[in-house]
Amino acid sequence: GELFGLAERFRLCEEPDFLLRAIGSTSRESIERAYDWLIPIISSHPRTINRLPSSASCFLLLRAYGTEGDKNQQLLELSAPLRQHVGSCISGEFGESQAISSADLLFHDLSDRNPDRRLCARRVLQEATTSMRPQEDDLDIPDENDLSW
Predict the structure, then answer these.
(1) Cβ neighbours of residue 120 under 8 Å, at least 6 residues apart?
(2) pTM recorded for the entire structure
């Protein structure tokens, strides 16, 4: 067993957030370095995804849809909560800077020379924004028969 459950306490602690501090910055390189120990944590505690910076959830979803075979299986199982988090980030739910960070990472991959990377970015962007599409009731389109204007 773990001594006093310290690993669990550190994982749950949000003030200060030891998980984010262990990841380091929000750069792609930091997320790649944290990948091997981060995946088991979010696999066993999917709600942890909501604490990740937008660049981390985008990167993980890009990896889930990537071409690395079995390495992505754990991430594929987490694709629904990752997709939801990425969609929330892109829509600005977590603020403008998170939306810009998400979009920047995805647009960077959309313009990459590697066709697999472009395909993954397109899929992430398409699937993450599907839930953002306005419903007909949300659109303020006047009725063509309404002459009250």
Answers:
(1) 62, 65, 66, 67, 109
(2) 0.74
